[in-house]
Amino acid sequence: MPQPDHISIFDLPDASELDDDMQAYFRICEEKLGLVPNVLRTYSRHQEKLRAFSTLYNAVMLSDSKLSKLEREMVAVVVSSANRCFYCLVAHGQAVRQLSGDPQLGEMLVMNYRVAPLDARQRAMLDFAWKLTVTPWEVVESDRHALRDVGLDDDQIFDLSDVIGFFNMSNRFATAVDMMPNAEYHAMNR
User: Fold this and answer.
1) Whose CA is closest to 161, among 133, 120, 138?
2) Are 118 and 112 spatial neighbours (Cβ–Cβ below 8 Å)?
3) pLDDT band at 186 (very low <50, low <70, confident <90, very high)
4) Nearest C-alpha neighbor of 113 from the set 98, 93, 132
5) Is 45 left (phi over 0), alpha (psi -120 to 50) or beta?
6) Among 187, 121, 134, 188, residue whose Cα is nearest residue 160
7) Upper half-sphere CA count for residue 75 (Cβ side, 13 Å)
8) pLDDT in tens, 121-179
9) What is the pLDDT at residue 3?
10) Domain 15-63 superfamily per CATH
11) Does the model's pTM come out above 0.90?
C-alpha cells in the first residue's frame, strides 16, 4: 500500500499566500534540498509557529555544536524509532544515509539501533536517547556519567538532551496531525 498522498490533516495555504520572508525560506529549501519539507508546509498554517519551529530546528540541528550533524541526525532517528514517528523516520533516516554515506546504517537506526556497528560514544548517546524517550523518569546521574565515560562533556550532554527533547516534541506533533514525509525522501541516498 503506498504512502498516503496528503501532507497532514489540515488545509494548508499555497506558498504564494505566505509572507515574503516565508516564501523566500521555501525557495531556499527548494534550492538546497530540492523540496520543501512537509513539516514546514504543515507549520505554514500558522506562520509565526513556522518561524518559531524553524528557528528552534536550526538552533538544535544546524548550529555550532561538539556533536556532529550526523550524530544529531542519528539521535533524531533513534528517538523517532522509539516513538514510531513515520515522518521523522523517513526524513531523518534519509539524512543519516546522506551524511554517513551508508544506507544500511540509516535502516539499522530506523529498525533497531542496537544492531548497528557503532563506536562506544555513539552507542552511549543512542542508549541515552532511547532511555530518555521511553522511560525518562528512570534517567539518573549514572546515565549522564556513562556519557562522560565515553568523552562527552557537559556542553555535549546539553546538546544531546536538546536534540532528544526536540524530536520527542516533533514526533508527537507529526503523529497528531498525521503528517506524511515528502515521498522523495524514500529513494534518496540509497
Assistant:
1) 133
2) no
3) confident
4) 93
5) alpha
6) 121
7) 29
8) 999 999 999 999 999 999 999 999 999 999 999 999 999 999 999 999 999 999 999 99
9) 79
10) AhpD-like (1.20.5.810)
11) yes
> Which of 157, 100, 154 is closest to 128 using CA atoms?
157
Contacts of 89 (CB under 8 A, 6+ apart): 77, 80, 81, 110
CA of residue 63 relative to chain centroid, distance: 14
pLDDT digits (tens, 9 = 90+) for 1-11: 677 889 999 99
C-alpha cell at 72: 544529531
d(C-alpha 91, C-alpha 185), whole Å: 6
Three cell numbers written together for 112: 533497531
The residue extents of the domains of the chain are 15-63, 69-176
Question: Which percentage of the chain shows pLDDT scores above 90?
Answer: 92
User: 1.10.10.60, 3.40.50.1100, 1.20.1290.10, 3.40.720.10: which CATH number matches 69-176?
Assistant: 1.20.1290.10
pLDDT of residue 1: 65
